[in-house]
Amino acid sequence: MATIITHVAVPLVLRMGIGKAKVSTQLLIVACFAAVLPDADVIAFKLGIPYASSFGHRGFSHSLLAAALVGILASICYKPLKSDPKWAFFIVSLSMASHGVLDSFTNGGLGIAFLWPESNHRYFLPWRPIEVSPIGIKNFFTARGLQVILSEIVWVWFPCLTIGVFSSLLRKTLKRRRENNVSFNVSHRL
Ligand SMILES: [Zn+2]
């Protein structure tokens, strides 16, 4: 896995790019939770479930179906999220699906069962620059843990922040242009 903190980079970028009018703070919090949720499956190690099993780490919980189901749940509960069903589904399911995508960029462990239950095949992307994160808190505060954080800053946080800043600027520019066009049309009609 990439580290838990790094998985929230995707919902944060979605909020920066789309804006808080559509991605409320409540929806952002749920999306951050959805982005880290798949790694709750590390409990499988304690339960003696084999890594390669569908119910092992990076199995069903990292699949696109699981992301879609959690997105549907969010779309049903859209009211407390101060959103609408479409945006609640889109933001939450995309945030959760991004977890598996980021994991598939890592250079260790088994791949991701994206297509579960159709197949338990474990997929990696052909290019895997992100250092795989150690499992367990105590393994994290080591030289290896530092190496993982540096790799995630370079390969996840920096590109995500760049996309977030540029998409936010683009959205604000387009909004300003729309508002200017509206006031121009109104003043011409008067
Ligand atoms: Zn994971």
From TrEMBL:
Keywords: Hydrolase, Membrane, Transmembrane, Transmembrane helix. The keyword Transmembrane applies. The chain crosses the membrane at residues 60-78, 90-116, 148-170. It comes from the Bacteria. InterPro entries: YdjM-like. Pfam families: YdjM. The keyword ATP-binding does not apply. One of its GO terms (molecular function) is hydrolase activity. This is Metal-dependent hydrolase.
